[in-house]
Structures are given as structure tokens and as C-alpha cells.
């Protein structure tokens, strides 16, 4: 099976990641960071002042630092064992997320299908996104309904793997578009993204 080759002490690849804190530290931290960062970007609490008629832009550096600090404030006490077992937020996240991974994929696909309000996307690109979303959604449904469907991708049935892939993809997209790539004027996909993620420019 994929990723089933022997790792340290004969354990498989995923067990090694779990032992190094993937479930207990990394994934909850990434999830909290992405959610907090997205909320701050949308609210524009730390937007730069308007200069010579230019629209206000949120300070992504401050939002990113706040997101990382809040993520660390939640995860670090869990790592050192300061939370009571019945009210540990990381344990609650790990119980909730794997069972809702398929629902999250379905919601994401629906958001893509309706085009995400704000900004226009070229129709061929929108068609490609819609077809890709339908394909992913159909693949996930078939894997959930038919136990023996496509055995080569059987590792995707593991809720931990699904949660890992979803969080990594979302985190990578946020980092690329919001922290690394500078917004460029000129329309197209970047203009659509800016309108949806950062909100329409002030009139």
C-alpha cells in the first residue's frame, strides 16, 4: 500500500508523522492559523490608511503574526499538558475534523460551483473549476459508497489523511496568494481573488 513502506523501527510513514506531533501539534496549529488569518483579512482590522485615492489594503504581515500567535497559544498548552482532558481544544478539533472531512470537501466544491461572489472569472476557467470540483466530489462519494472502489487510493479513506490533505491545500493557497504573491492590477484570476478574499474596493 502507498506510504506503507517501513520507516523508523518498521512503522509506516503516517505513524511516524503522528509520533512526531502531526495530529497533536502541526495540523491544529495550521487550522487555527488559517481560520484566524482569513477572518482578519476579511474584517480588515489592520488595513493601511487610504493614500491618494488608492483603496485600503490589509496588512497581511500583522494578520499572519496574530494568526500564528493565536495558533501557538492554543496548541502549546496542549503539548505541555496544561489543559484538562475534558476541555482540551486540540482534542476537540481532532475529534471533530476527521468526521467532517467529506462535508468540508462538499462545501468547498459547492463554493467553487457557484463561482464565489465578487469579480468575474473567464468562462473557460470557471468551467474547468466546476468540472474539477464535480470530479473530486464524485470521487469522494464513490469512495464512501463503494468499499472496493479504486484500491490504489485506499489510503484516502483514512480520515486523518483527508484532514491532512485539506488543511495543507488550504494553508498553501492562503500562504501563496495572501502572504507571498503581491496583488497585481489588471483583472483576471488575481482580481477575482482580491475581490472575494479582501472585499470590494471602497467607492
Q: What ranges have pLDDT less than 50 throughout 5 or more consecutive residues?
A: 1-7, 116-122
Number of strands: 0
Note the overall shape: flat
Number of domains: 1
Content of β-strand: under 5%
Helix fraction, binned, reads 55-70%
Tally of individual helices: 8
Structural class: mainly alpha
The end-to-end span amounts to 56 Å
Provide the succession of SSEs.
HHHHHHHH
CA radius of gyration is: 20 Å
Mean pLDDT: 68
Major sheet size, sense and barrel closure: none
How would you describe what is shown here?
By secondary structure, the chain is mainly alpha-helical. The protein has one domain. It is 64% helix and 0% strand. It has 8 helices and no strands. The termini are far apart. The N terminus is likely disordered.
Detail the topology: elements first, then pairings.
Layout lengths: L12 H7 L2 H22 L16 H21 L8 H11 L1 H13 L9 H23 L13 H22 L7 H11 L5
Helix pairs in contact: 2-3, 2-4, 2-7, 5-6, 5-7
Key features?
203 residues, 8 helices, mainly alpha
Entry summary:
It contains 8 helices and no strands. With 203 residues, it is an all-alpha fold. It has one domain.
Amino acid at each position: 500500500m502507498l506510504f506503507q513502506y517501513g520507516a523508523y523501527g518498521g512503522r509506516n510513514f503516517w505513524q511516524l508523522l503522528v509520533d512526531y506531533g502531526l495530529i497533536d501539534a502541526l495540523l491544529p496549529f495550521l487550522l487555527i492559523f488559517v481560520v484566524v488569518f482569513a477572518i482578519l483579512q476579511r474584517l480588515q482590522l489592520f488595513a493601511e490608511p487610504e493614500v491618494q485615492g488608492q483603496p485600503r489594503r490589509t496588512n497581511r504581515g500583522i494578520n499572519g503574526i496574530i494568526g500564528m500567535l493565536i495558533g501557538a497559544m492554543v496548541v502549546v498548552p496542549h503539548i505541555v499538558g496544561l489543559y484538562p482532558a475534558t476541555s482540551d481544544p486540540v482534542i476537540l478539533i481532532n475529534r471533530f475534523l476527521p468526521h467532517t472531512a467529506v462535508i468540508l470537501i462538499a462545501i468547498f466544491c459547492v463554493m467553487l460551483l457557484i463561482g464565489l461572489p465578487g469579480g468575474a472569472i473567464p468562462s473557460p476557467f470557471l468551467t474547468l473549476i466546476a468540472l474539477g470540483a464535480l470530479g473530486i466530489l464524485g470521487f469522494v462519494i464513490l469512495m464512501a459508497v463503494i468499499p472496493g472502489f479504486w484500491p490504489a487510493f485506499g489510503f484516502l479513506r483514512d480520515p486523518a489523511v483527508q484532514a491532512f490533505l485539506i488543511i495543507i491545500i488550504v494553508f498553501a493557497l492562503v500562504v501563496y496568494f495572501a502572504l507571498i504573491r503581491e496583488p497585481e492590477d489588471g483583472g483576471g484570476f488575481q482580481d477575482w481573488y482580491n475581490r472575494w478574499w479582501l472585499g470590494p474596493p471602497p467607492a
